[in-house]
Each structure stands twice: as C-alpha cells, then as structure tokens.
Fold this protein.
Amino acid sequence: MKLNTNENPYPPSPKALAAYEAFDVSSLRLYPPLPMRALREAVAQAEGVAPENVFCGNGSDEILALCFPAFFDEGGEGAAFADITYSFYPVFCAFFGVPCTQVPLEEDFTLDLNKLSAAKAQGLLVANPNAPTGIGIPLTEIEAFVRKNSGRIVIVDEAYMPFFGQSAVPLTKKYENLLVVKTFSKGYSLAGMRCGYAVGNAALIGGLERCRDSFNSYPVDSVCQAVCAAAIGDGAYYEEKNALVVSERERLTAELAERGFTVLPSKANFVFARHGAVGGREVYAQLRARGVLVRHFEKPRISEFCRITVGSREQNDALLSALDEFLPR
C-alpha cells in the first residue's frame, strides 16, 4: 500500500476521463498547441485571472526549476527558503549556480516569515502548506510577507493548497512581485499527467516563457492539455473528493495521537508524525515489512518523523491495523 508520495486516493474527475477517451489520437502526429490557449483559459477561469497571467509546464517541479534561471542571477544574492521544506529547492540552486540561504524553522516547525524576510537574497520561496511538515500559513500572513518584500520576487509553492483553501492567487492582482505555483498532481488526482501551472504578473509569466522557449517550446503534450483543461473545469467534483481527504486527515491525526504519536497540525494531504517510544526509522521499517510504504527522512531534526499520505478510509484503516501489530500498547 503506497502512502509515501502523497497521491490522491480518489480517481480524476469523470470530465477529465471523458476528455481522455474523446481525444483524437490521429492528431498526435502534430506538435501540441504551443500557446496552450485552451488550457490556460481553463486555468484562468478557474483561478479568476486572465490567460496572460498563467504559465503551464510539466508539473510544478519543472516550473519551479525554470524560476531559478528566469529570476535569479548565477552567483548573485541567491534565493532564501526554510531549512526544512521541499527538498528540490536547494537542488535547483546548486544546479543553476544560485546561492541559497536556508532559514531554520522554529522549534514547533513553523516558519517565521520575518526571519525569512531578513535574509539577504534576490527572492524568497515559501511552500504553503509546507512539505514535509504539512503546516500551513494563513493568507493574511502571506499577504503581509509579500507586501513587505515588494522589491524582490516571492514564489509561493501551493502544491498542497487544495487541502488548505487559502490560496494566494488573488494577491497576484495586487502585487507584481508574487508568483504562485500549483500542480494538477495532488488536488486533481492527475499525478500521472505531469502538469502544473503558475499564476502571476504578465511580466513574470513572460520571463518564464522566454526561459522555457530557449530550450523546449513544446513541454505540455496535447493529451495532457485536453485532460487538465477538463479537470480544472470540474471544481465541484474536486471540492467533494478533497473534502473527504481533509476529513480523513483529521480522523487519521486523532487515531495516530491515540497510539502515542505526536502529529504536526497538517493542512496538506499527508501527516508528519513522531512516535513517543518507537523511532521513525523503525516505524518506517516495520510498516514496510507489512506492505505499507511511508516516507522517512534521515535528516537532522526530523529523523524521528514519518510522513504518511492520507489515503482512503480503507487504506487508513489498513495502516492503523499494521501499526497496531508492532506498537507498544
């Protein structure tokens, strides 16, 4: 049972599946639509922005990677982000020759945005909700942070926002320095399609487009464009399914607490949990031996934690049963 990569336990929208089945495969001899107009318009309508404020790519990872050569100077003041956050941020910095400053999370694993603002950097990155902790930052605090850093770019990575519901996208109409990056992988149950998008000022979107077009003008394939455009148009379906994930997240949190775990207050589709008597590596190994995969990090401060994807009710019950087989009573 795979609870280690934060996939959604529910299937994609019927509208997305219908778009897949109706796709004209004879058109695959042609390159995909370069402007991605239909997809960008669908995203724009769902997000309440204009199509020129939308950029699409092969998953949010590709878009985040493009941000570094697009907005940061090699060898310049670099980027700043939390020390415990999405692990690809420092990887992208190293690959593109961008210096980085990592600001330690607080003892309770929250991020002090004032300390991040104090970092000497060209731009700032915030994962909200954060990964792997799952902790979310309220929109009011994000807005104050963006406003305070008006002289440099602020990139908010909202991969897990469908399970929090406080997106910063509306702020992109007020602040030209804000870029919000999202994905179809988590909230839209389309991890296998590899599609993501960014919303921001037209100048920021233009910077991403020039960077992308310098080496790959056709990144999002035709099938993906059609399926994701249909998916994002079915907001009611995803609200219903993601509400189930949130409900299960709260139930799983309570069940884990009863079994001796400390669980950080998650706003994502996973929980970050530490047992009081059994180490994180041992929990991971014992679950793996029973056919349940969770994520363990051999890193300072978080090595006693496991990150557990919130599955369906049946999957979560199976996880809890596996834990009951080896945890001390």
Remarks:
- The radius of gyration is 20 Å.
- The mean pLDDT is 97.
- The CA atoms of residues 267 and 294 lie 18 Å apart.
- The longest strand covers residues 178-183.
